[in-house]
Amino acid sequence: MQSTAIYPGSFDPITNGHVSIIKRALRIFDKVIVAVSENDAKGPLFSLDERVAMINQLGLDRVDVIPFKGLLVDLCVEKDVSVMIRGLRAVSDFEYELQLALANRRMNRDVETIFLMTDYKYSFLSSSMIKDMARFSGSIDGLVPEHVKIALQERFK
Ligand code: ADP
After folding, report:
1. 145 — phi, psi (to 5°)?
2. Nearest residue CA, atom 1 of ligand 1?
3. Atom of ligand 1 nearest to the CA of 12
4. Which residues contact 23 (CB under 8 A, 6 or more apart)?
5. Looking at the annotation, which residues are catalytic?
6. What is the pLDDT along the chain (157 residues), one digit of tens a residue?
7. Ligand 1 pocket, 118 CB below 6 A?
8. 89 lines ligand 1 (CB under 6 A)
9. Spacing, Cα 2 to ligand 1 middle (Å)
């Protein structure tokens, strides 16, 4: 049987920190489903379709990218997956991630959350930080994939 994990997030846009988590998850699981949440509450810079397309453009083997709305635990049941991956950067991520993991466990005890530590190179990196840097023409070389850098430059032109 193939082992599969779901890696959920807004990915607005995907950064090299996210890519590092996906690649490391692929060393543990046969397949990773990257679930891109609509997340209108955060007022995303890129549409859901654009965010999905940017991750697909990475052309990663054994990775499926899907858009999703609603509850993660429902998605896990729909896809018959019992492991969710989340990335941890700093202690500051811990409180929110613990809350999320416990809420998900309360809703479905069969779904486990696994945390992967960020690569230290990307520990300060978040999508919002990248957007701020790009908005004011700061250098984002090496922090996002090349096509994401171009998309950001286009958006802030
Ligand atoms: P969300 O809006 O659901 O937090 P994000 O797209 O911001 O979604 O992040 C998705 C997941 O990736 C989260 O678990 C987050 O902690 C993790 N993550 C974000 N940036 C990094 C990074 N630089 N290194 C490792 N993990 C990260």
Report:
1. -60, 155
2. 9
3. 6
4. 60
5. 18, 42, 89, 127
6. 789 999 999 999 999 999 999 999 999 999 999 999 997 787 899 999 999 999 999 999 999 999 999 999 999 999 999 999 999 988 878 899 999 999 999 999 999 999 999 898 999 999 999 999 999 999 999 999 999 999 999 999 8
7. yes
8. yes
9. 25
CA dist list (Å): 142 to 44, 77, 132: 22, 36, 16
Tokens describing residue 44: 């995303």
Ligand 1 atom nearest the C-alpha of 37 is: 3
Which ligand 1 atom sits closest to the C-alpha of 86?
A: 14
Q: Residue 93: its pLDDT value, please? A: 85
Residue boundaries of the structural domains of the chain: 4-155
| pTM (2 d.p.) | 0.94
Is CATH 3.30.70.20 correct for 4-155?
Answer: no
131 within ligand 1 shell (Cβ under 6 A): no
Q: What's the length of the chain?
A: 157
